[in-house]
Amino acid sequence: MPSWPLNQWYVAAYSQEVGDDLLGRTICNEPLVMYRTSEGEVVALADRCVHRRFPLSMSNRVDDSIVCGYHGFTYDKGGQCIAAPAQKRIPRTARVPSFVVHEQDSFVWVWIGDNERADTALIPRAPWLDDPAYTTVRGMEPLKARYGLLVDNLLDLSHETYLHGGYIGTPEVAETPMTTEVDEEANVVYVSRHMADAECPSLYARSTGIDGRITRWQDIEYHPPCLYLLHSRIAPVGVLPPEDGPDDQAFHVEVVYAITPETEHSTHDFWMVARDFALDDQEISTFLAENNRTVVLQDVTALDVLETVVEGEKDHYQELSINIDTGGLAARRLLQKLIAQGEAAPVGETAGAGDVAEVAVRAPAEPVPTA
Amino acid sequence: MTEPPLRAELPPPTKMLTGRSVYRVVWKLNTDVLVGYCWCGESHEDVDPIALWDWLLAHPATHDPAGGAR
Ligand code: FES
Ligand SMILES: [Fe+2]
Ligand SMILES: [Zn+2]
User: Fold this and answer.
1) In Å, how far from its chain's centre is CA B69?
2) CB–CB contact A362 B15 (8 Å)
3) Contacts of A188 in chain B (CB under 8 A)
């Protein structure tokens, strides 16, 4: 069984990546070929010709069909083989599986599971990524590590000081109480760190026009398995979001990650930074893009190493968890719950989702040392 | 081992999620104590996040079945 939940939506690509050309990408161990039809619709098919397995992503697009680059089997956008060389009758079984996709918020989401269970209402939202009121910079880094290591990494902001020293930490961070929330029904982990009175980084002071100290919120919202949001809110000291209406006295930076397993030992690390101020300021765009990419690459380097360590260790290696891991433990537990739910038979069988909610997050642990 | 600080020194949890069954854990960095709040309002403190999650997740089992949310 895979280490990720089945019957879930995963980000397969940025919308802008999928066009006329054939794009090959493995999502959750499924090699996919994607393209956009003449009608503008995104198609995702299994990237293996039924004849001798040649990758369709290395084949040729002819109108809205793919002609295999080896012997010419031709597939329509539904994956059905509609022509084979020198052959009058096409076997009805000649088809490649087709995947359910949905474009939203600048992403191409793909459903990994039973196609009948795909429900687009379940896709978590990141609306600012596709909103003219925001400017977004983005990238994608290949990670040679299992997706769980990236989840652990992103849920724990305390590694900022060590792994990213000088890039994102500020002195007030260490002084601020943190709340971790878990919504058991909606399957969301939320970690908030609200600094009432903090120093304003100079770049933000210049670009927002805020002069003086700020109220700074950093809130993580993780929708397992794939979507991670880091809401960063900057406002003059004491300015809180209104009860209703837009939070327009504040400035927002929305950092988004899509954490998509490629294989059991590799991950697509999609990252974006959106902001609702200084929309045309190229210097800020460059700063946010370069700064975030640097931070992402620091994590990639560390996690690539960690993957080799984890692969090499004996079974039942005992980790030690401390308070900084509160959010990460919550995320792991929700993932375990979703894995169990995703494997449960959809209809007719009695495996109840309620039975799986109590999956433990630990093996017997050593006590955490205290002062 | 010193006594953990009193719960009263920690602020109430920040409430950002609005669902019916939300567990919350508050931690002030550079202290060792965590305070967990079940969605029913009960709270519990611990210095081990794993033990605290175990307490929180077990708590619904002790709720009055007539009055609980599950
Ligand atoms: S492998 Fe595709 S047609 Fe032969
Ligand atoms: Fe990091
Ligand atoms: Zn309770």
Assistant:
1) 17
2) no
3) 17, 19
Which residues of B are less than 8 Å from A360 in CB distance? 54
Is the residue at B32 inside a domain?
yes
Tell me the nearest-neighbour CA distance from A140 into chain B, angstroms. 29
Classify burial at B13, counting beta carbons within 10 Å of its beta carbon; exposed 0-12, middle 13-18, buried 19 or more. Answer: buried
Of A334, A346, A369, A296, nearest to A150 (Cα)? A296
Query: The complex's ipTM?
Result: 0.84
Q: Whose CA is nearest to atom 4 of ligand 1?
A: A71
Distance from CA of B41 to the nearest CA of A (A): 14
Cα(A31)–Cα(A47) distance, integer angstroms: 5
pTM of the prediction? 0.90
Judge whether residue B7 has pLDDT over 50. yes
**Which spans in A34-167 are helix H?**
147-155, 160-163
Number of domains forming the structure of chain B:
1
CATH of the domain at A238: 3.90.380.10
Domain containing residue A293: 140-361
Domain of residue B53: give its range: 24-62
Whether A92 and A240 map to the same domain: the answer is no
Q: Is the dihedral of CA A247, B20, A221, A133 positive or negative?
A: negative
Mark which residues 10-69 of B lie under 8 Å from A by CB: 10-11, 13-17, 19-30, 32, 34, 39, 47-50, 52-54, 57
Distances (CA, A) of A28 to A23, A262, A322: 16, 5, 31
Q: Do A192 and B48 touch (CB under 8 A)?
A: no
Count of other CB atoms within 10 angstroms of residue B65: 8
Whether A208 and A311 map to the same domain: the answer is yes
Instruction: Encode pLDDT of A34-53 as tens digits.
Output: 999 999 999 999 999 999 99
| Cα A29–chain centre separation | 16
pLDDT value at A352 more than 70? no
Average pLDDT over residues A233-261: 95
